[in-house]
Amino acid sequence: MNNKSMRDTFWDRIYGLAKRDKNLVLIDADMGAPSLDKFRIDFNGRQYFSTGIAEQSMIALASGLAKEGKKVFTYAIAPFITSRCHEFTKLNCGLMKIPINLVGVGPGFSYDDSGPTHHLTEDISIMRAIPNLEIYCPSDNPAAEALAEKMYYSKNPTYIRLDREILPDLSGRDESLVRGFREFGKGDLAIVSTGNMVHTALEAKTHYSGKGIQIGVIDLHQLKPLSKEFKKNISQYKNLVSLEEHILDGGLGSIIAETIVDNDLPVKLKKRIGLSDYIYAYGGRENIQKSCGIDTSSVINKIDEFIN
Fold it and tell me: How far is CA 186 from the centre of its chain?
């Protein structure tokens, strides 16, 4: 069982890159993590800075440093690095194509007991509207580590959403970094998911395998831009279901629907499973997901409506 968070896996890789590249700079907004202690000890005042609880200032500072040739990573809780400073990111990074990297921890209901201030179920919608911005969402630690390096070498601004929960590592890494997705199994139907919800999709897949029904699961960790390989791959299926811990408006399901229509692909999106609206809720993540109809049992029930 993996006992390391996605966050620490990501930052440990960035730390290794920072040791060999003195132009790599990390700026955080009053964040704490074991993996950040090494930055504070080894790089404070040179390659590490903290702006305090001032995310807009963090983005402005990062943009200036990036214009001067620094490779900048910024870090905050996911709703604060997206919603709170959206205009700064749009103008300073997106429109000007300044290659800073936004790292947000805790999308969806990761901070389950913290309530609406810390829940984030709209970031894919608002961030994919920013021009030139690449968006990533890993489902396990190996993906997070690989994407850390991909972001380091990118010439565009990037945003990655790292789940707060410790998730088990999945198999099938191979060439998925280049393709932007990985695939588990085949069938007439595939569930397309991202981040923590990939694990829910795999639980549904196991359920159907036990009934003699084979379905595929597609782990889409590169949400923008979509690769040509992804578009080709989903065309091999008859039906798709999208699954996300995110509002349906503008989220993963919208991405899939737009891709099918815009490219005239011969596949049907049978159902989008996600949040119909913003959910005002507290409590454990499993309970919140159940109330939203995105827990494993609810997902299976919704697929049962047409798979049989």
Answer: 24
Q: What pLDDT was estimated at residue 172?
A: 58
Token pair in block for residue 9: 């896996």
Structure-block tokens of residue 89: 């990111």
* Same fold flag, 6-162 and 176-307: yes
CATH no. of 6-162:
3.40.50.970
Q: Which residues are 44's β-sheet partners?
A: 48
CA 79 and chain centroid, separation: 13
CA distance linking residue 13 with residue 133, whole number of Å: 22
Q: How many CB atoms lie within 10 A of CB 164?
A: 21
Separation between Cα atoms, residue 138 and residue 221, nearest integer Å: 5
User: Sign of the CA dihedral 8, 11, 17, 22?
Assistant: negative
**What is the CATH code of the structural domain delimited by 176-307?**
3.40.50.920
Burial of 254 (0-12, 13-18, 19+ CB in 10 A): buried
Query: How far lies 219's CA from each of 160, 184, 273, in Å?
Result: 15, 8, 15
Under 8 Å between Cβ of 55 and 61: no
Domain boundaries, the chain: 6-162, 176-307
pTM, two decimals, is 0.96
Q: Is residue 103 helix, strand or coil? A: strand
Distance separating alpha carbons of residues 49 and 111, to the nearest angstrom: 25
Kindly state the average pLDDT of the residues 60-82. Answer: 97
DSSP 227: P
Q: Which of 35-39, 76-80, 124-128 is least confident?
A: 35-39
